[in-house]
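Hi R.,

As promised, here are both runs. First protein below:
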Amino acid sequence: MSCGSKIRDLRKNNNMTQENFADYLGVSRQAISKWESDESFPETEKLIKIANLFNVSIDYLLKDNESSEIIKELVAPNYDVLKFKRDHNLCAFMIAFGVFLILNGLSIMLLISSFLEEEKYFISTIPFFIFLAISVGIFIYFGMKLDALSKFDYSLIKSYKEENEKEKRWLTLTLTFSTVLVLINLLILITILSLLNNEDSWPICIFLTVLSISVFGYIYMGIRISKFKNEEAKNNEKKGEFIVSACAILAVIIYLGCGFIFELWHIAWVVFPILILFGVFLKTIIYGKNE
């Protein structure tokens, strides 16, 4: 079996079009067509990229006596570029949406608690824990899917550098907008509470809702740009996510303890934004410099 035939079979078994394959290697579609029909031969550099992409040896590609029957065992996961982008962006959106749900669950909990007597505050936690359960399910499912996608070597794509710079610009804009939005929102909250001088919950509910929008943007763009990171940076990202998750779990424990033991349901919610933001800050300080 010729080298061109093996390249063609590997590409088709990975559901790649000649256009997508050409994008990975930085060549024209016509060049791919000539390789596969044995009219020309890939350069050594391209052979190495092809071997790495499909998880096969260069010897396998060059030796005519290698059987194509083992291709199904050797091929890498589906490397369709457009599908990868869609799946990666969907994971980023859903994980960010999970955090969005948690913060809005807090907002709804506070709003409901404002209509209840103090001894019945625990009832307001029901919608929050429903939102929390949905979010945990989202984190588990899409987190596993994102982990599988992280094995994809995005640097093989021809437009890697251009896309990386574009995503970084969007990330910078998102971070700037989110930070300014939170600071303005916090200033408005302090002003309203000082003017009202009461225990109304609606200003805090609005603050949490706006905060959830800011955090959503930060997480969404942060995950989107993660596909450009090297292996070490991806490992650091996972460690950082563990820190944030640990802070979130600690917040739940403290909240429940303050609620059930001291009946401080109405004020104990503050541990969530404090500890989660602390986790994000800690993650940035420890691992951010390596990204």
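And here is the second one, sequence first, then its structure tokens:
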Amino acid sequence: MLAQLSPPSFLVYEPVKASSMSFDLKLFGRKVRKRRSHLDIEIRQLSAYTGIPEQRITTLESGIAEPTGDEILVFADFFQVDYNYFISNQSDIASDRVDILYRFHGDDFKTADRRVIQEFIFLCECEAFIFNKLGLVHKEFEFKPSGEFYKTHGEEAAHALRKFLGVVATT
């Protein structure tokens, strides 16, 4: 008779223990809806981009169902925000501040434009995080043009920026 073997410990499913912080499903839904609105995309488009079914996205945006960890990571990756934004009670991030821009000039921005703006903001946040962790101080580059020849302004600004960055110009 064969002895019954138990599965290896790494295959045994153990439910995740609830943390002391409560997860606000309604807030999560508002965040997904807001991110989608900023990119000016419909639920069907978000579904096509992420692989998450439309009905599931609707349910998540309504705050009815709890998202899986994978769904949170997929949304964070697609919307280019830190996943902590979706799981925390934090309600504001830097990219939320583009509301004013979109309110006044929303029709001027295509979805691709909004995506690039979001990516730029995300990269700036990543840079700030890295600078902070490495203890680096951000130095401001300043250039004040003189004279009235704009071509000369550009050349002088480029030279000053290369010097500021420690880049040797090639001739």
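A quick note on the second one: The helical segments are 25-39, 43-50, 54-61, 69-79, 83-87, 99-105, 111-134, 150-165. Let me know what you think.

Best,
J.
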